[in-house]
Amino acid sequence: MNLKLVLVSVILTVYNREKYLSAAIKSVLNQTFNNFELIIIDDFSRDRSKEIIKEYKEMDNRIKFLFHNENKGIARSTNDGINLAKGKFIAFIDSDDVWDKKKLEKQLLVLEMNENLIIWTDGELIDEHGKFLGKTFVQLCNSSQKKKSGDIFFELLFGNFINKSSLIFKKKNLGDLRFDERFKTHEDYKIAVDLAKRYNYFFINQPLTKIRKHDENTSSSDEKFLILDHIKVTQYFLFKYFKFIPKKTRLLLYQTIIISTFKLSKFLTRLPDIYNDLKIDIYHFIYKIKYELETDRRVGDLLLNKQILITYRGLNSLISHFYSLKKFFQGFSLVIRFERVSKSPRFWVNFFVFLIKSRKSN
């Protein structure tokens, strides 16, 4: 691969980032590797972000931009950037982050040896003024001891530790993958795992990015959506890759859903909230976990397996936590079937009958 002939598409998404946008753009334009296009997607900013983008466009024709006429979210913005990209490789940078000037150069040297790798790097955490906070991205994610290169699919199942602003990979390798527009906060995590199932990662242990931490970070702005998206993305992994995930690993993933649902419960005060906010049939899912735990014969006695016991106890506590669901499951065990709970009108009729009877009995 001749690096001089390679075009890299750098995708930068923006929403109300006038304070940090110039620093992000400059860090890309100042790269030692200069054969790139910088695609900036503004997601209907209400500040001066659009004016800043136009000013830099006049100074450098490597910049392309697209302005949304309504706010469509970071996933849609990123996908629009991908669809506009003409480069062999795609890289990403958040509008409040900064690149080291040799970031692309060092990554492309690795891709020259194997262009099918997913390359990422460490990064320094900085504050709103650009001051180093004394910690790296890897340290923030507690991933210093985790496997970061090669096949990291199983490591990623238990939490995202990939620095999105450091990613670069071959556009062709995305295939049909895109950032999931249903997610508000975990769209980058989902695609990182999907890519890990298909390709090996390569970690450059150098802080080639600067990750800015400030009060306006999307990732820290809404606890409810963070928890909700974590539950949804973990469910996606279990359903999508069920046959590839060992039983013990599935149990651990079930535990994370149970723990997250406990955390989410403080935002959900009524039964309809559980279904409407989760957009999943939580009853179906809980009972499916119970079924898998209770019918496991390969590990012997349920009480002799600590991992299963912890999950099972947490599950039963969760069932008790939601308005007599334990009694509901016992009373309607013949009605509930693991594959067609939410689709069955009979289920919902009996469910409301149960609620009316239980209320009368009280």
Task: Write structural notes for this entry.
The chain has 362 residues and is α/β, with parallel strands linked by helices. Helix content is 44%, strand content 15%. About 10% of the residues have low confidence. A hairpin with a 5-residue loop joins strand 6 and strand 7. The chain is built from 14 helices and 9 strands. Helix 8 runs antiparallel to helix 9. The strands form 2 sheets. It has a 5-stranded mixed sheet with strand order 3-2-1-4-8, sandwiched between helices. A 4-stranded mixed sheet has the order 5-9-6-7.
Task: Please give the radius of gyration in angstroms.
Answer: 24 Å
Task: Please give the domain count.
Answer: 2
The tally of beta strands, per DSSP, is 9
Determine the CATH superfamily of the largest domain: Spore Coat Polysaccharide Biosynthesis Protein SpsA, Chain A
Helix-strand pattern: EHEHEHEEHEEHHEHEHHHHHHH
Biggest sheet, strands in spatial order? 3-2-1-4-8
- Specify the number of helices: 14
Could you estimate the helical fraction of the residues in percent? Answer: 40-55%
Q: Hey, roughly how much beta strand do the residues contain?
A: 15-25%
CATH architecture verdict of the largest domain: Alpha-Beta Complex
Give me the CATH fold name of the largest domain.
Spore Coat Polysaccharide Biosynthesis Protein SpsA, Chain A
Largest sheet: 5 strands, mixed
Distance between the termini: 74 Å
What structural category characterises the helix and strand content? alpha/beta
